[in-house]
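Backbone-to-sequence.
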């Protein structure tokens, strides 16, 4: 049995694990193995926001334009497209791209076509909103976990391999212990750190930039039933999905009370907006500790966890996974144009008295 932490990222621990050395997981799980030359990745959530069915066609056209820009030589190695309706009733379309080299992402973002489109005053008029939420964790700042071993989604698509059975799963705290940095770092933000608006004002619309802080945690937790048989589809749609939806709705609506800055349960779609039988949750948290505390105590997540334990050994085509990262404040970018003020990281960001209007 392997450690979830790859050999080149293993070091002597100063922070003890939560299980004994002879711990054995109750069922097999796997993690992605990255090429050792990959030092840092970029995860970019590129959004288009609209309100009302009458603007859907225009919003999808903007999504297709963003998707076309990803074909650039410095575009991502992998991307997917999603839709969700937020609790303000707005439609949000997101293209989520993954780069194995932040420098390539920087070249893509600053390329004339991409930069001129984002910077154009045309983005500031009309019925659509736009946003980009970008984090670039180092390889010692993220972990993955899969109940399957092929065609890895999300950041797993950047990996060139898969582990054998891993040891660090099936117990509270295992998520943290799969992150290599956890061997010697609690990955906590400072008490005085918070989200800050550094340009614009969410209440006034227009362009808004939010500064993050060290060790914001980002989780993507996915469910793919595209190839599942009827029994597994029923298991997911009748047992897992309702409880999942309840938990994610709680975080969407009450996240500020538990340290969750933003939470979205999204549906995968194609370029024409047609739904695909795959969903995932995107959660930004003040810290990994806040995420852990909610996961270990909230009834909806406990029901999800219990259900997964009951069915994990029998999964065939139902694909369940997650990825969790923390990132340095300097490796985060949160920008919004014409979005409603509760969008993403704007909801909990402090507007300073001297903020640049």
């Amino acid at each position: 049995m392997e450690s979830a932490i790859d050999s080149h990222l293993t070091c002597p621990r100063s922070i003890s694990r939560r299980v004994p050395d002879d711990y054995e997981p109750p069922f097999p799980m796997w993690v992605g193995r990255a090429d050792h030359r990959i030092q840092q990745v970029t995860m970019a959530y590129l959004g288009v926001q609209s309100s009302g069915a009458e603007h859907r066609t225009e919003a999808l056209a903007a999504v297709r334009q963003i998707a076309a820009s990803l074909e650039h030589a410095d575009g991502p190695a992998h991307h997917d497209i999603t839709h969700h309706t937020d609790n303000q009733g707005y439609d949000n379309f997101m293209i989520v791209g993954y780069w194995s080299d932040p420098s390539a992402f920087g070249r893509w973002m600053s390329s004339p076509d991409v930069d001129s489109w984002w910077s154009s005053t045309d983005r500031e008029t009309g019925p659509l909103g736009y946003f980009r939420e970008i984090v670039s964790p180092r390889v010692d700042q993220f972990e993955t976990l899969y109940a399957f071993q092929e065609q890895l989604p999300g950041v797993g698509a950047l990996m060139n391999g898969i582990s054998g059975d891993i040891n660090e799963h099936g117990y509270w705290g295992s998520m943290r212990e799969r992150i290599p940095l956890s061997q010697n770092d609690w990955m906590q933000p400072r008490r005085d750190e918070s989200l800050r608006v550094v340009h614009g004002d969410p209440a006034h619309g227009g362009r808004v930039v939010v500064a993050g802080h060290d060790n914001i945690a980002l989780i993507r937790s996915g469910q793919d039933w595209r190839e599942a048989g009827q029994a597994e589809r029923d298991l997911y749609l009748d047992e897992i999905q309702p409880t999942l939806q309840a938990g994610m709705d709680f975080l969407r609506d009450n996240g500020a009370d538990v340290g969750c800055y933003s939470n979205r349960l999204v549906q995968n779609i194609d370029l024409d907006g047609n739904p695909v039988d795959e969903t995932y949750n995107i959660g930004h948290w003040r810290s990994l500790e806040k995420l852990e505390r909610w996961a270990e105590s909230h009834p909806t997540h406990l029901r999800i966890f219990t259900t997964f334990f009951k069915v994990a050994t029998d999964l065939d085509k139902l694909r369940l996974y997650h990825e969790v990262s923390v990132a340095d404040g300097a490796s985060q970018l949160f920008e919004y144009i014409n979005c409603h003020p509760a969008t993403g990281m704007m909801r909990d960001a402090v507007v300073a008295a001297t903020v640049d209007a």
